[in-house]
Amino acid sequence: MSADVAAGSQSAVAHVERLLRQTGVAIRGAFSRRDGRATFGVASVSYLLVYLAGLRHLGFGPWGVELSVVADPLARATRMVSPFQWEPVALVVAGPVELLVSPLNVALGTALAVLVGVNLAVSVVAYRGPKACKIGPGAGAAAGLPGLLSGFACCGPTILLVVGLQASATVLTVFQWLVPFAGLALVGTLLWVGTNVDLEA
Amino acid sequence: MTMTRRDWLRATGALGVVGLAGCSGSGGSGGGADQPNRTGGETGQSTSAARRPPTADRSLYLGHDIEHVSDNIVSGGVPKDGIPAIDDPKFGPASAAPLDPGDPVFGVVRDGKAKAYPQRILVYHEVVNDTIAGDPVAVTYCPLTGTAQGFDRGPVEFGVSGRLVNSNLTMYDRGTDSWWPQVLATAVRGEMQGATLREFRVVWTTWEAWQTEHPDTVVLTEDTGFQRRYGTDPYGSYNPKRGYYASAQTLFAPLESDDRVDPKRVVLGTRTTEGALTFDKETLLTDRVRTGDIGGTQYVAVADDALSTGYVYANPESVSVNAVEDGYRVGGETYTADSLPLERSLAFDGMWFAWAGFYPGVDYVR
């Protein structure tokens, strides 16, 4: 019995190792090509900008040049103002562009943006390239969906005005979990891509 | 609108001490647990009077049982103090304020001292713990119900609990952590449950009108201690009106629905110990005098043309109030809208759904 359990554990570990190796191959493959790197760059930067705009941390305002920082920015930076949103510590105005700098939100947005970028890069390369790995074009769409979800998540209840929903305890709870769900979904999509890689190809 | 925020802050730095001088504390979050006790009596603990907001001698009429209101408090999607009150407000001269003429401001005059609180700032903070003419006060604003109200706060400050009832801001006091829905001005949960705050009038008007009427006014600056994009309102815009403010949709279900009027229609409402009454604001500004009653007592509303607002008076003798070119004729004398020789009943603007939700069946004077 214990031998069976041990064998099962070893099998599961081996499976995860293989999955990670396959995913690694897919990512390295994507980044070895120019279209993969371009897709990653465009998708990541675009996603981060949309994420910050969704938070209303990035947008247009009266023309000016300004940099102002709150007193005690380190303490403020970790003050949560709503689920997965933290206090901005600085305002940057450059021409018509206004940017509120919340370090933890920039870090979170960057992490999500990197995941979205990697997902799309792998999918685009798989779709356009030779059969380095056997991934269908559906992977691209699957990778984009969680990114879209987390984009909604960043806007909070005000997005309800747009979609015509009334806030309720359930709806607010769902919104609170969209960001971690999006992160998990992006990692899951990437690993799923890995399952489609043929290491012997 | 060409002045940058930094220019504005620099220009107003000297005046900032006006707001600083009277502030009673540094504005820590305070308040204790996220969930206050349902009533103070249950715990046997109480907070000394020194850490309580001052209360009114008489309780205001509530349209619902207090427990019903308490049970209908919901999360607004932000934690306690997630919307930070301004505890160290700084004020600047009117000439330097980065406001458009039609921008809404909330005006307060106390002992001849006029202050304006721009809506574009309060939409991000909802509570300003200020001191006016030596009196510690809280100027409060709820974007979702369109209500701006002032309260005496005594030695304690108010904060934003992150909870709503009937879409209305539920404040907490940092002394007892009791919860106070703004429109009700009454604690519905916590040690002070059932107590009523002392209120004062806050006028919702435009920056142009306020500045014309009070040229010496000072204005709350964007030097709030927080970084926000104050020019952008997360709910829409009042100048021109759009987004949530123009939509017939509410974000949260009201306590009671009443389809006599568009949910976001602005009414001037008043409530007394006996009941509540609302006047259609647009009609009041056009007709200038409207009357209604609470419990058989007549109440008369008159328009203040200069500030596009109104005042409500108890008129138990049903004396004649007539609009004339330069004011209102009462008993052979002419008075301005805010000085009729009758007992003033505190009134404030609000969205119809908010008044109808808190005071089911409230009279609506068109």
UniProtKB/TrEMBL annotation, chain A:
<feature type="transmembrane region" description="Helical">
    <location>
        <begin position="139"/>
        <end position="162"/>
    </location>
</feature>
<protein>
    <submittedName>
        <fullName>Uncharacterized protein</fullName>
    </submittedName>
</protein>
<feature type="transmembrane region" description="Helical">
    <location>
        <begin position="106"/>
        <end position="127"/>
    </location>
</feature>
<feature type="transmembrane region" description="Helical">
    <location>
        <begin position="38"/>
        <end position="58"/>
    </location>
</feature>
<keyword id="KW-1133">Transmembrane helix</keyword>
<keyword id="KW-0472">Membrane</keyword>
<keyword id="KW-0812">Transmembrane</keyword>
<feature type="transmembrane region" description="Helical">
    <location>
        <begin position="174"/>
        <end position="193"/>
    </location>
</feature>
TrEMBL record, chain B:
<feature type="compositionally biased region" description="Polar residues">
    <location>
        <begin position="36"/>
        <end position="49"/>
    </location>
</feature>
<protein>
    <recommendedName>
        <fullName>DUF3179 domain-containing protein</fullName>
    </recommendedName>
</protein>
<dbReference type="InterPro" id="IPR021516">
    <property type="entry name" value="DUF3179"/>
</dbReference>
<feature type="region of interest" description="Disordered">
    <location>
        <begin position="25"/>
        <end position="55"/>
    </location>
</feature>
<dbReference type="Pfam" id="PF11376">
    <property type="entry name" value="DUF3179"/>
</dbReference>
<dbReference type="InterPro" id="IPR006311">
    <property type="entry name" value="TAT_signal"/>
</dbReference>
